[in-house]
Amino acid sequence: MAKHSRTWWGQKFISALESFTDSGRLQDGRAYSGDGRILRFDITKGLTTATIRGNVNLYFEVYKEPKYETEVKMTAIATKDWTKIIANMSSKASVVARLLLNEVPENIEDSLTSVGKHLLPYSSKDFQTECSCPDYSNPCKHIAGLCYRLSGELDQDPFLLFEMRGISKEDLQAELLKSPLGKALASELGEIAPLSQKSPINQPTITEDAVIKATIRSFSSC
């Protein structure tokens, strides 16, 4: 399939969908991902919903242009598991640094697989989807279209993945800042909290030297 997302995490999200969805519905789904089809789009507390404009279809006895309610969410990770995951993250300076600077490191999955979880979807078990259309298949083309649209949103804000897995960016960063590494990095970078309010353009540039210094400082305070 042609790439529909620009980032590695967006592509992973779509690859999972494409692994278990009919190719014809995927092709139609890409056409359903634009504003001309998606009349309403919303992401709230990890649940993505949309109203999608459908087609007249005499085979399904749809005689006038319909509007379908569609939703996509991912299986959330339990709070107790997030506690273990964040503890694992907090031991890795590069991971803490990137997450505090509103970036998602490419080795992020290492911190989740250590407790048998993962951030990005890998199979149909990671998705919970519904659509009001009469198509018997799930995912249908409307769900596929919504997922393609969602992958574009993930390009812009990868922390939506965390939200879809049950933890907000603000809560994640707040917990990381409580760790020795988080405190040391915040100090090394010049009191960067609250980080969620800073734009990527105004964020401090993180260097390997800053990470090393913060790591040494965190061990010294233990």
From TrEMBL:
<protein>
    <submittedName>
        <fullName>SWIM zinc finger family protein</fullName>
    </submittedName>
</protein>
<dbReference type="GO" id="GO:0008270">
    <property type="term" value="F:zinc ion binding"/>
</dbReference>
<keyword id="KW-0863">Zinc-finger</keyword>
<keyword id="KW-0479">Metal-binding</keyword>
<dbReference type="InterPro" id="IPR007527">
    <property type="entry name" value="Znf_SWIM"/>
</dbReference>
<dbReference type="Pfam" id="PF04434">
    <property type="entry name" value="SWIM"/>
</dbReference>
<keyword id="KW-0862">Zinc</keyword>
<feature type="domain" description="SWIM-type">
    <location>
        <begin position="116"/>
        <end position="151"/>
    </location>
</feature>
